[in-house]
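Putative damage-inducible protein DinB structure dump, as promised
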Amino acid sequence: MSIPTVADETTTLRAFLDHFRDTLRRQCAGIGADGLAWTLPPATMTLGGMLKHLTFVEQWWFSIVLHGHEPSGIWADVDWEADEDWDWHSAVHDSPDQLRTWLDEAIETSDRLVDEALARGEGLDVLAARERRGGPVSLRWILVHMVEEYARHCGHADLIRESIDGATDL
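structure tokens r here:
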């Protein structure tokens, strides 16, 4: 997918987000359970943890914050107080196919929820149902934040993937 160089703000933000989502998918493609659990010390971050974390981040920002829904699916009963990084740590117990499927499903749901928010007719100025950081956040802010979140983690994924098998330019 190519990012348009001339487009409206909504199309541009969504295209950049999709670009980084696809970049992460490529960086994790063809990697089995051992590779997804690989760390690059001293960091403990793994590609599998990253897939699961971003699955949660998708639900957090687009379902929970934007629309005010309660956590659902694998997130419904997580005890975040017991392990605030549960998404990162628990991924070693999930299969590569499951991690990839969860992310794909979360992205599909997020895209639908963005469409629903845009259908309200306020464009990117629509405010989230839940306040964050002490005040309201707009859909624009959420999309920019998600581009930043994915871009940052894609940089991490580059380093981890190269340490696993030398793959670059994915």
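The chain has one domain: 9-165.
lmk if u need the other ones
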